[in-house]
Amino acid sequence: MAGALGHLVKQLTRNYEAFDPFKEGDILDSKGMMTASFDDLMNYLRDMMVGYESEEVLALLKEMEGVVAKKGNLDKIIAVCEQLCNIRYNSNVEEEKAVVGFDKEIETLLDQLTATSTKQFQIISITGMAGLGKTTLARTLYSHELVKYMFDFRSWITVSQVYLKKDLLHGILSSFSNVLTDEFYEMSEHQLGEKLYRKLKGRKYLVVFDDIWDCRVWNDLKMYFPDDQTGSRVLFTSRDIGISLHIQAAKPAHILRLRTQLESWNILMKKVFRMGICPDGLVHSGRVIKRKCEGLPLAIVIASGLLKNNFSTTWWEQIAASLRSFMVSDPRQYIDSLALSYNHLPLHLRRCFLFFGAFPEDYEVPVTKLIWLWIAQGLIHESGSRNLEDVAQNFLMDLIKRSLLMISRIKSNRQVKACRIHDLLRDFCLRKSEEENYLSNNDRYEHMLLLELTKSKNY
């Protein structure tokens, strides 16, 4: 219904903008079209709110009639329509998750999952940093009507950092049966594995392992997944790009990118406005907010939570001016997700990662400079025949593969020239550094002094 309402509001907007009282000839026609649009909108709103006629709703409908009668303020019309939509649908409709900008990825992955030309069993992986939408993309594929039609069995299992093989087998098997007896829960790992193998034997199946952290998950379970040349598939999502190499995926990992500015705007509009229409008075502030999210859907979702249901120009301007301050004021919205990546780091990488908290916001760190600073801070130690620079380079690439750093510039030989960190991850570094008493004032001073000394160097 919100889509139909959005169409009516857009039609009204077009007729309103086309109406010119000083234009000769077709004034009556334009006026008639505009009046008809107003009538259609009001009739739709009255029908939509049948059964929801509270004092608030009646007041909003009366307010809308007043605005419509004066043929004025389109921003006000949009705001009232949004309020009515929220009253009508909030408790009944699950918010649609945005997969904006991934049309090409969906098409490619859907083809790999369902292609009848490839009968052998295949592993497919989706990777990228926290908050990019890996799970949402995988869920979209898993729920696609073509996927439902093509596979005899589908199963979705979320893998935690610390997992039990038996729990994973229970989870997969439970997708294939509505009734599980006590005997099922008393089975050993080996018995469960055999049961799963027999269940899948000769069938075409899809099993999704969401958010895996270690290739050992697949190594523990792969013996129970038969390859009967039926076109079966296993789909992994992970923050670690390197995992797809260890699990022998059929294709290179699908590394999700940050969203473009246009895609970010579309996501923000989809999250904030049910009709997807932004009032003109909020567009400028909205575009500033969109740019500051740096293409990360997690940041866009947090920003949309701050904006939703508050269409005050002053409020949007405040958010646009101090978005980061508003976002980090409630770290519960993102800290747990980012902490998972940090907790999975080996100790030697944790301090190297936290070191990024000392750089300014949006700072592109030249790799050569970063390596010098890591070495100067005593974070790098020689390993076997490798020198300090080689060890530091390996640490850097490991952090990139784990989707904690973003490559910002590449040399002509395809090596990384400069990297950066997203603002939310930088804030996490600062919080974790304070918690662990890392980067004290003296360390910060020494670090920034070294930074100044290396500014004149070419990189």
Would you write up a description of this structure?
This protein is α/β, with parallel strands linked by helices and 459 residues long. The protein folds into four domains: 2-89, no CATH class; 103-255, P-loop containing nucleotide triphosphate hydrolases (Rossmann fold, 3-Layer(aba) Sandwich), CATH 3.40.50; 261-333, no CATH class; 345-453, Winged helix-like DNA-binding domain superfamily/Winged helix DNA-binding domain (Arc Repressor Mutant, subunit A, Orthogonal Bundle), CATH 1.10.10. It has 23 helices and eight strands. Strand 7 (406-410) and strand 8 form a beta hairpin. It is globular.
Structural class: alpha/beta
Strand content: 5-15%
Strand order in the sheet with the most strands:
2-3-4-1-5
Average pLDDT works out at 80
| Overall radius of gyration | 27 Å
Total of helices: 23
User: What about the largest sheet?
Assistant: 5 strands, parallel
Tell me the number of structural domains: 4
Number of strands: 8
Give the low-confidence spans. 91-97
Shape: globular
List the topology elements.
Blueprint lengths: L1 H17 L8 H22 L6 H15 L4 H16 L13 H12 L7 E6 L6 H9 L2 H6 L2 E6 L6 H10 L7 H5 L2 H12 L4 E6 L5 H6 L11 E6 L4 H4 L7 E2 L5 H12 L7 H13 L4 H11 L5 H9 L1 H6 L6 H9 L3 H8 L10 E2 H10 L11 H14 L4 E5 L5 E5 L2 H13 L5 H13 L6
Parallel strand pairs: 1-4, 1-5, 2-3, 3-4
Antiparallel strand pairs: 6-8, 7-8
Helix pairs in contact: 1-2, 1-4, 2-3, 3-4, 8-10, 13-14, 13-15, 14-16, 19-21, 20-21
